[in-house]
């Protein structure tokens, strides 16, 4: 953890237009929750629907993508990463710091709004709000690790990340149940399921698989990103 | 000194002037359009830049191949012409998101826009060329698989028969379905125009490619996510009319509803659109195209004067 690098990263992410997207997504979640309130559909089942389809299904992958790649990819694109790499700071420390920044932002923009929305809609009933908040947190950590790695490995990180989130977790996951075992979104859902005793929420992946998988993916992402940055070629690939 | 002497002078240091033919504004715009269209498919760029567009083209061709095979082997159409684009919307959205920043972001980022605008090309021409390039690219992406399906249908003689289990086999719609094909080709252009206008306009607001990709895809995901959630919620409260309106938040279903209104017949998506969806949807599509184009023009006028 290096506080200077953390400060630079926060400024880069929050001081530009990126922040409007980070704010927009939770705002839409709040708006949808408000609408559910108005039409009187704020029961447990619709709350879970909103959480599953929007909070975990749309907002979390998008925020993970924007924040996870955003902490490092623009610097690599601009070449300003050179100034960071030429300082006597261990490269794994750089990636670890950026990972922690990404996680903290995901807590702020994904997990916290998820909890607030859930508890505004149905309070603490069935532990749904807390469950999805913890699920969003765990999923957010894994997304941050994976997309950070993608940002270091390729310049097309966002496109590849989008394809993973949309095609694999979305389209393929809908038709091929086996694909759900290897989906961060489903792992987040398993954790949410663990915390809530609601019958309307049913996870497809057991916690015994989801929890180790989440940890493994995160650790591999962060460690590999550090190694990869260690032998980073400034000449780039394009 | 009371007399003001000129501080900067451009001396003619004897370079030869260009005296050859000048092709003018139209030629420049055409060249820019062709260059942009080639770039969308990665032509003239590195091998890495070709991977993503071509794999997406390959995925778009898959349903056409399956369709032709199904028509030949079991005399059935798994997919209608009008249902093709809504079924492939994720692929089109990814194509749009990954390629539209390429069209506009590098010129902004490397500040070469003044170089274009110092030629006879005006900001309006520039925007037009970029929009035309993206529209043609998307139209090709939609039209080629549709045409392959249609040619397959012309070649294969699908006649109603019986399966080994005694069920009636064969096309539910008469074959060849020329009206369906032509209607879907025409609306392929509408899809392409709408997507290109919105996608390129959103991408033109950031000089960063990554952020551009993320913004375009976020917009699509927001629209489709909101649509799915609202639809499910209204269905659970049995507000069926509101539920069917909620579908139209998704731009692909919006155009599909208009197509269904004009050409009638099967929606191809198995969805029920509200009664007034056609005319209102057409207005919404036109408004979205106009709004995006206007935003983009304003953005480039500002960039030109800056």
From TrEMBL, chain A:
Keyword Membrane annotated: yes
Does Membrane count among this protein's keywords?
A: yes
Record-linked Pfam families? ABC2_membrane_4 (PF12730)
**Which keywords does the record carry?**
Membrane, Transmembrane, Transmembrane helix
TM regions (residue ranges): 19-39, 51-76, 97-116, 128-150, 157-176, 205-227
The protein here is known as: ABC transporter permease
Q: Which organism is it from?
A: Sinosporangium siamense
Upper lineage ranks? Bacteria, Bacillati, Actinomycetota, Actinomycetes, Streptosporangiales
From TrEMBL, chain B:
Which species is this record about?
Answer: Sinosporangium siamense
User: Taxonomically, which superkingdom?
Assistant: Bacteria
- Does this UniProt record's set of keywords contain Transmembrane helix? yes
Transmembrane intervals = 51-74, 86-105, 126-151, 179-203, 210-234, 280-300
Tell me what this protein is called. Answer: Uncharacterized protein
Q: Which UniProt keywords apply?
A: Membrane, Transmembrane, Transmembrane helix
